[in-house]
Each structure stands twice: as C-alpha cells, then as structure tokens.
Specification:
The chain has 79 residues and is α+β, with helices and mostly antiparallel strands. It has two helices and six strands; from the N terminus they run αββββββα.
Amino acid sequence: MKGVENIDKFNQFVESVIREDGTCEIVMQANKRIAVFETETIWLDESDNSFDGFVGWWDDDHSQMTLGVTPYEVYCDMP
C-alpha cells in the first residue's frame, strides 16, 4: 500500500506546484534529468476543482511530450 501512497503524494505535489507556479519541474534521482509537468488545458474541472489532464516532457528534449490523466501516469510513459 505504501507504493500507492507515494504515487498519491507525487500527484498531489505536482498538482500543488502547478496551481501555484503553472509548471512543475522535478530533478529525477534515477537519471538526473529534469521532468517538466503542466496541465493539458488551462481550465480546472469546476465540479471538483481538478485538472482534466497533464502533459510532461524532459527539459533536455522538448520534442517528445507525453499526455496522461495524472502526473505519475505521464512520468511513467515519458520516453
């Protein structure tokens, strides 16, 4: 269950930084690359104040952007 809690914390952290700064950049320990996350759209879902999706890319390679429902899903699918 701890893995799920860590995924939830990751998603919550990224979302909170995006709400405050518009973009979240994280240096990934595994490969020392910077992962960049933003919302797929600029609008919040007003029914529950959530984002409708996320986009991410590596800071050193803007040519490949990955879409997902959650920041963690985006991270897992980033090439």
